[in-house]
Design goal:
heterodimer; A: 156 residues; alpha+beta; Glutaredoxin; elongated; B: 525 residues; alpha/beta; Ubiquitin-like (UB roll); five-stranded mixed β-sheet; 22 helices
Amino acid sequence: MGREPWSEPRTRQIVTEHKGLEGPLMPILHACVETFGFVPQEAVPVIANELNLSRAEVHGVVTFYHDFRREPAGKHVLKMCRAEACQSMGCEPLVKRAEDRLGIKCGETSADGRVTLEPIYCLGLCATAPSAMLDGKIVGRLNEAKLDKLLKGAGA
Amino acid sequence: MTVKIYIPKDAAAIACGADEVAAAFKKTAKKAAVKIDIVRNGSRGMLWLEPLVEVEHNGVRYGFGPVAEDDVQDLVKAGLLGEKGPKGIKHKLAVGPVEDIPFFKKQTRLTFARCGLADPVSLPDYKRLGGYKGLENALKLKPIEIVDVVSKSGLRGRGGAGFPTGIKWKTVHDTPPQQKYIVCNADEGDSGTFADRMIMEGDPFVLIEGMTIAGLAVGATRGYIYLRSEYPHAGMALNAAIQAAKKDGYLGDNVRGSGHTFELQVRMGAGAYVCGEETSLLESLEGKRGLVRAKPPLPAHKGLFGQPTVINNVLSLAAVPYIMEHGAQAYADYGVGRSRGTMPIQLAGNLKHGGLFETAFGITLGELVDDIGGGTLSGKPVKAVQVGGPLGAYFPRGYFDTPFDYEAFAARDGLIGHAGVVVFDETADMMAQARFAFEFCAVESCGKCTPCRIGSTRGVETLDKVRAGERPEANLAVVEDLCNTMKFGSLCALGGFTPYPVMSALTHFPEDFGRPAKKLAAAAE
């Protein structure tokens, strides 16, 4: 995940790179998250202006999708699957354990800004459940020991 | 002598340590001065064995799994890379010739025939294993003849709705020449499903070939694969395969010298479950919020950017190369009733032998769970099985005689959906599962229609009241009423099918809702 500070010229550059595509808005927003780590509020009017859309239209798209975060995430992002297959293998006690360890609720970022804990609905690893993803790295057959190792690796 | 070793790069294998195992083999072989050739293949689908390491000897692949990084040295010490080969090795991880394992042997692999055999993104390997023969045949036919073959095969949409694929294609074929699109729905959001992911990671060319054939059949020159962002490994495999296909003239402005154009792009979704609904997906591809469209107009008439569009699931498109290579009848010979061909069934959740099991329609749910899947991993009795993802019904053991067939499941108020089977043991709390179904719908609703948007939220609140002991019977009546409204009043399957898990839980497991278990028989009737 990118940590480049937001800038208007960089945003315009991202739009220019994708403008030739059919339906360029989703790829542009993905690129923003990749570059800045999130979609800053200031980026919305710039993108709208470049694509000849209203700010409301761009805002609507940003807020519709889970992936387009509007605040920077913690240094590490731990996503834990809470869908049915993982439920059947006991993901909920593990989520609770992570919450307790981090002192936050799922969906929040730890006070020191180190870890964001998020739910994810299905990584497609349903036969090796429960599953998690730490900074893009996937983990199957999650158990307490593996979870503790992940949390430790994230500095929690 | 070079020893050939296969270690999958399927996401499920990677999640269980396949990358680390591959690195350990490299290191250990170097130390032992043995030459090895590691092929990162797709998964064989026996996911309880992942990472499944296969060593080839005299043309037979011997399996070892699940291998952890720490097991590698031990395996090598046992003679895995030795002159005598892996055949006689006695090791706790040895599973023998992989293709003799009953789980594998009992399958009918048409769509997944190649998955796991070779490097998924090697075009020469794909062709060596029989790939692109379907396209070759299609190039000799008129577009309408291709459509006819697909129609006669009886192929139905594998995404869940089971709509005949041939009819969709015919509708787009019959629209006047203009910019048409082939859109692949790779937004496999249902929990318990991973067949799309496995085929995209394990044999991406078969999907590309299927889409190219669809393009020829209906006169579409552009294709998009709408891939969920939770599947980064599939994205990498698809993009590598598309590049290779382009380079060799299988994609581009003159497909295999035929004069036909077909361009293909992968587009990433952004974590919205509802975008697996086809019209919502099209909105998303256009760069809008994933709001479901009212039908008509059908996507076949006014689809992507208002143009005629074939939108099919990954598995539907990936079935097409087999049909074009072997003929409609060869495919239709498998299956039962109106469910023709094979279905890649995904066995998941609390199951001893979870994985991908492709078989002809007609196998019973009980065979799948007890025989193929080997019962629960926890060893406790099976309580419920959810088939078809978060919108599928929970079936009790009493329904284990249900054959896997679109109509048979529908007759019991259930659905096959995308053929994900999630097993729960006796510890499952079915009222909690029903509440989750409402909650998931509330979170993922696109918000366009009231029954889905409001009904799901009210459902959560009402079940909470039941849980708290607040006038339980009256509130369960409200739940039933809400389900009715959602089922018949919602615009798409998200709101329309959420009642399936809720009502099935309530009907088959009344004791979990504080109702007497005796009422079960009466409610079921």
